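wait is this the right file?? whatever heres the structure
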């Protein structure tokens, strides 16, 4: 009796924080039924990853036709908001153009590949917060604009897709998370903004929900899914929350106000969880964060 072919999950951008975590998580949980593969471009700590320039049509087509993934998850791109503001063309080339290329390759070759694209809370204007997955985006930054353009490209294509919007992914290896922990351990004073709000997303929650989405893809009717933590917090609130669970921290946390006339920060980019997340989340925000801190 022939062994059934494993379904292939490709994580494009598996050397970045989000992609690396998801690649490791999925590999350790669903290897019996799925083959998890991944790509990198410049940095690579995993010898099994495939080097790919997502801006190069020929390279992308060669990769996709070689593996014919059942699911292609795009986590690659730049999240450097300041760089995007300085150089729109670069932001477009790395956040928008690859989505067009991948969609075209799937359509041209009539593949059944399901395309899962990681977008962002920055597609919204940040004026009121509590954005739902049905709300109309209105980005105020080049980062948000290029991500929204990518969303629209997918929606207007003929590919089978899901758009996952997440925000402020928190966990070991994340720049902000690691920086805050370092500050809390080693500084007498830690200054953080109290008048800007977001929806911090534990990396464990994101991984759990992505696994659920892959398993139940056909039963999930939503095309846009907000996978975020259930708490709306200021950055000050979040740091205070972390400090409460960080043993040995004696840092004095000082709240400060952002001058929005001189900053690219936005007032309130908090997202509301999609029903898919509300119906499947098994652990609380607090439990996920405590797990990350236990990995110290």
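ok assuming it is, sequence goes like this
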């Amino acid at each position: 009796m022939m062994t059934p072919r494993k379904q292939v999950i490709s994580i494009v951008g598996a050397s970045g924080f989000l992609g690396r975590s998801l690649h490791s998580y999925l590999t350790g949980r669903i290897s019996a039924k799925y083959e998890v593969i991944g790509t990198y471009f410049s940095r690579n700590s995993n010898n099994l990853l495939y080097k790919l320039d997502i801006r190069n049509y020929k390279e992308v087509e060669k990769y996709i036709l070689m593996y014919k993934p059942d699911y292609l998850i795009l986590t690659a791109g730049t999240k450097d908001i300041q760089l995007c503001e300085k150089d729109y063309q670069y932001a477009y080339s790395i956040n928008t153009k690859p989505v067009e290329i991948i969609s075209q390759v799937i359509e041209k070759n009539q593949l059944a590949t399901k395309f899962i694209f990681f977008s962002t809370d920055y597609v919204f204007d940040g004026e009121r917060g509590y954005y739902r997955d049905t709300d109309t985006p209105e980005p105020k930054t080049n980062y948000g604009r290029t991500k929204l353009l990518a969303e629209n490209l997918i929606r207007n294509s003929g590919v089978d897709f899901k758009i996952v919007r997440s925000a402020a992914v928190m966990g070991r290896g994340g720049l902000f998370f690691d920086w805050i922990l370092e500050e809390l351990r080693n500084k007498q004073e830690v200054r953080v903004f109290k008048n800007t709000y977001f929806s911090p997303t534990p990396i464990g929650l994101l991984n759990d929900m992505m696994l659920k989405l892959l398993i139940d893809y056909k039963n999930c009717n939503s095309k846009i899914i907000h996978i975020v933590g259930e708490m709306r917090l200021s950055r000050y609130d979040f740091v205070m929350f972390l400090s409460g669970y960080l043993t040995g921290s004696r840092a004095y946390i000082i709240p400060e106000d952002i001058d929005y006339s001189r900053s690219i920060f936005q007032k309130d980019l908090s997202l509301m969880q999609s029903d898919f997340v509300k119906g499947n989340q098994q652990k609380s925000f607090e439990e996920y964060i405590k797990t990350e801190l236990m990995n110290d």
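The chain has one domain: 7-171+199-230+271-287. so i think its the right one actually
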